[in-house]
Amino acid sequence: MGKLVNLNHARKAQAKRQAEAEAAANRVKHGRTRAEKLADRAAEARRAALLDGAKRESAED
Q1: Number of C-beta neighbours around residue 25 at 10 A
Q2: Where are the alpha helices (DSSP H) in the chain?
Q3: Closest CA to 19 of 31, 6, 11
Q4: Rg of the chain over all Cα atoms, to the nearest angstrom
């Protein structure tokens, strides 16, 4: 006689494996590392500082 399998457990386990695989694919597709995020923030700060440094004083004083 073969091993008895609870179909509800098997179905849930399969769905969990599929969800984990999809999540992993989404992390690769959309995710960025912490270093990438920090580098982007630093570059934006440099651009903002450069732009602020190039502003002219108003001549209305």
Answers
A1: 10
A2: 7-30, 34-53
A3: 11
A4: 27
Give residue-wise pLDDT tens across range 1-60.
789 999 999 999 999 999 999 999 998 888 888 999 999 999 999 999 998 888 787 766
Q: How far apart are CA 19 and CA 27, in angstroms?
A: 12
Give the integer Cα–Cα distance in Å for 24 and 6.
27
End-to-end CA distance of the chain: 96
E strands present in 1-61: none
The pLDDT of residue 1 is 78
- The pair of three-digit structure tokens given for residue 52, joined into one six-digit string: 């602020």
